[in-house]
Amino acid sequence: MAENKTQKTKASVEGFLNTIKEEQKRKDSFTILELMKKATKSEPKMWGTAIVGLGDSTYKLASGKENEWFQIGFASRSKDFSIYMMGEKGEKYNALLNKLGKHSFSGGCLHVGKIADVDTKVLLQLFELQVKASSPK
Fold first, then answer.
1. DSSP string, 5-42
2. What residues does each domain of the chain span?
3. Which of 9, 40, 45, 84 is deepest in the core (most CB within 10 A)?
């Protein structure tokens, strides 16, 4: 398996989230974390210094090499949350996105400004769909 630049660490996820200075963003981080834990039924791990990832997955590079990664994860960025989901995208995924609320995409990530801008029930459904799609067959 190829070495990924961003590696899983033993750093505390809760400790990391508690360093987020803006109170609402910190609370939103814990809300996203709880939704992801519910969807994956797994415990979070830090990936590098700023990404929280849950579940185990691999992805194949164009070269054919495989990298270890997480099923779903997120990072609290300065203006929004970058949400990483490894599963297949399709009609059901797009239908859920249409119901989600205020969001955007760039670089293959779903971006959400704050939890109050989205329907958390739909967000959970998106997480569950992605976990199912990225689970080993």
1. SS-EE---HHHHHTT--SHHHHHHHHHHHHHHHHHH-S
2. 8-134
3. 40
